[in-house]
Amino acid sequence: MSKTSKLNILRTALSIIIALAISFIIIYFISEEPFRAINKMILGPLRSRRIFGNVIELMIPLIFTGVGVCIMFSASQFNLGAEGSFHIGGLVGAMAALWIPLPSFIHPLVAILLGGIAGAIFTFIPALLKIKTSSSELVSSLMLNYIALSFGNYILSYFLKDPKAGAPASYLIPNTARLSILINDTSIHTGLIIAILVTIFGYIFLYKSKTGYEIRVAGQNEQFARYSGINIVKVILISQLLGGFIAGIGGSVQLLGMYRRFSWIVLLGYGWDAVIVTTLAKKNPLYVPISAFFLAYIRIGADIMSRTTDVSPEIVSITQGVIIILIVAEQFLSKYRHKIITKEAKSLLDTEGVE
Amino acid sequence: MSDIILEMKDILKIYPNGIVANEHINLSLKKGEIHALLGENGAGKSTLMKVLFGIEIPEEGEIILKGKRVYIKSPHEAIANGIGMVHQHFMLVPSLTAAENIILGVEPRKFGLFTNMEKAIEVADNIAKMYNFDIDVRAKVETLPVGIKQKVEILKALYRGAEILILDEPTAVLTPQETEELFIQLNKLKEKGHTIIFISHKLDEIKLICDRLTIMRNGKNKGTYKTEDVTTEEISRLMVGRDVFLEFDKEKANPKKTVLKVRDVSVKNKLGNLKVNNISFDIREGEILGIAGVEGNGQNELVDILTGLNENYTGNVLIFNKEAKELGIKGIRDLKVSHIPEDRMTYGCAKDMDILQNVFSNQYGDEKYSSKYLLKSKAMETRAEELIDEFLIKCNSFKQSVGMLSGGNIQKVVVAREFSVGPKIIVANQPTRGIDVGAAEFIRKKIIEFRDQGCAVLLVSADLNEVFELSDRLAVMYKGEFSGVFTNVEELTEEELGKYMLGLKKDEKLEGIIYE
Amino acid sequence: MQSVFNIIFSPDFFYDVLRVTTPILFATLAATVASRSGIFNIALEGIMLIAALVGVIFSAYFSSAWLGLLFALISGGLVGLFLGFLVLKLKTDAILAGIAINLMAAGGTIFLLYIISGDRGVSSSIKSLVLPKFPLPVIKNIPIIGTILSMQNILTYVVLLSVIVIHILLYKTPLGLKIRAVGENPNAAESVGINVHKIQYIAVTISGILAAFGGAFLSMGYLSMFSNGMTAGRGFIGLAADAMGGSTPIGALLVSLLFGIADSMGNVIQTGIKIPYEIVQMLPYITTIVGLAIFSYSKKKQIEKLKSK
User: Fold this and answer.
1) Could you tell me the fold of the domain covering B248-335+462-516?
2) CB atoms within 10 A of CB A301
3) Residues in chain C closer than 8 A to B143 (CB atoms)
């Protein structure tokens, strides 16, 4: 491993440590029993099989949106539509589960696939608008997320709503469509397997396939890609379609695995979380489960802390924000980085002689 | 010597990559003269002017302005010392009006808080009138033609009290009419006592308006002369010359059938200026056609056409008898046409990706390196290691980012990629620019090797050594046309070549450029 | 149908439009100032949220709506400055820095609210105050116009005034000239001795203050409480409206009004014709996307035309 990649790991680790330290300091000042709170946050998730299961359950949707955003961002497209894709994916998954009677096993597969297709269409729109009209994919994807929410609410209240349910929610998802529990005493469902498959697929696609290579080259230097004979328009469209597809799958998996009814009347935020996951994973799907696990762990930890102490769980949002900033900030550790780079360059010069 | 307004003494500037751009240069300017600074690209004139304008800080040397030593560490200080510069790429804000651009940073105010726009327009208008610049200062800069934009730049400098005005290749972007007008203005500025440094390599223009001229070559001052005391031939000899003679062991070419046919190709740039004017030529297997010329005479535009990057041209380009426009970039590459781009950082690499990923961007689709969907990582790694060895790329491993390599090694990565596809045609645009001697020699040898194996090569270079030593045939480009063609390169002298490069001589017949 | 027509062309409808437009217009102006200086301020959403909470807290603490507003503005300016620090000093990608600020704001406001009041999500136990409505002298007596314009919240007048102030700032002052120059061609600005970073710091601070006005309007304009995520994407709409309005204050006003009309129309159509509420809710967003696409396309064509000239 080269010194610069070691440095990258060091930077990530330091970012996490500093971010946690800041959170702990805040807890120290606001809590009556800070050490108990911090202890709960760090060790809480390990207390029982069920609670640790919660970490894994939360990790699943983060893996889907994380892998999706990795692919979309790798093409240098700031498409933030994963949020909407996830929502629409859940909605369409629910519709398929309720409306298309199928035997178990096939039923969830069809529902998930349809959810994925809906998600793909969703992120395809900003990409198409960008190519045809040069309007910013970031802005249009942000607007589309709200359209996804309203659309979901519309379908829910006019087509899916169970009047007998207390809150706005769909009829019960038939058991044939639900993802079965994978590990006893937890709610960890077979979606975990799909998530792992998607991770492997995402990694192979982005780092081992021809199209993935094209996407990364175009994302790094579009002019170089064009000069090399790569079709930029194709690359943008495929990356955004696939990213949305995976986020959409994530939505339907989450719904069929964790919910008895479609009851999402707000956006759940996994699309935004995916930006954190992707940043931590450096756009490599292989690292997505690790960063998703980390994120899920501190969130569940914070939850446990809030249940038993006087600190509320949103302290985690501060931790997350600081992590993103430190990882992305070029100047963080830049002096140290510069020293290493010049040292590497110099050692090369020495072997090279005079230039 | 009281009329000397500015002296630059013993300026030494070494760039961090070790290139000595200015080697103890002396330059003195008389008040009220137009002083030409000539030299080919890379001769060091731009660097010298950057030193004067405070953009670059020299390692050694001093600047003496009106008898007093001054230290210029930023453009702001240069401006405060009465030095103004008109950059080749204008420093204007397009959506602002001419007047707003002129007063930017030194705005007249009213009530302390607001821009006094009436005053600004008046001031801008006055200064324009004072120098007889006929411009509408209320017009937005983006709507103005290039010639007027340049005037706005000049006015900007004058408004800030510039006594010495540096013009960096001012005529490069102008039409002949605009150039003529610029010269009238410059003469008027001179009458008003301004001193002008005129950077150019167009001899006719220099002869027309400059009082004295200084010639630079390879970072050295080759002498300052009164314009009337030197002939254009002498200037051309001083400017276009070789300091080092390199000899290559090169067998005589053995050309076979024609593989690239270019017929009546013309192209305009975005500004509507004709950059390539009705050019035709052929290249055969096993020969190197060199294209010499001062940069900016249409070479890059021609290369973009041949490689498919630009499809908005007229005329025909036939690659193995197939129309280039129909092939597209990918189609052209599929016919084993390789392209070494002039700007390696923009087109030639993705600097944050590793060497391996950079050497396959044109051939990952080859069945050796991929199946229908997937890349064959093992084969790619083995091949990357082979290429690193073969092309002597100095690096830790193929996992190193290209951006971490030296310029010469980055260029080797580019060349390794382009040459490893088994090219049948190579289009090499400035293949050795700005890289160390060792790497340059290596690349040149490779080019000859490929020629000997039957590859057709188009070599565009501003480096005379290179075109002399490599070319089997040599064409000179001047103002978008071929001004001369030489089939007997060995007998050609550099003086002779210089005349064609600088437009002093033109061959109308161009025999030997096409076969048929 | 007739009734819908009557409602749309009633003074009450337009009164409502102005009310709905106010926070959007603040966000749009905030986006305009920042993007003119060359910084894409996606943190607007978070800034509005923070300011909304700060306003509620301090208005209750001092028992003064005005002091609440003041502190809200200060908080907005500071967050803007913080974004500037991240982008200019730490060289963080502006979009990711903005997203980080938004995520911190979303959680941080809930966190802070809980610490201060023990409330979760809604500031029900904080006795916060409302900024006053304001009768316009003379105008209030004019029929129709009086009904539309008079008795709006004070911040509605502030935002209309801000359109003029920002217009003057950008086009009539040396600072505005510098902001525009810096955003468009920083090299040109630097070459004439302008401190580019200083100008950008000033611009993001102004942007933060404008967004804070919008946030304060949400929690202190008609409501007197903060609720979790109450900005509901208005900061993002501001970004879209700014892009669609071509980054000018007048464009910001027109596009925000269009958005306000689309939004208010939703409520009207719903009562008049049987169009589902949820579909109507999409109207403003669809309007924005379509408008943005049309605007970007015409701008693209315009640039191509300029180049080929």
Assistant:
1) Rossmann fold (3.40.50)
2) 23
3) 306
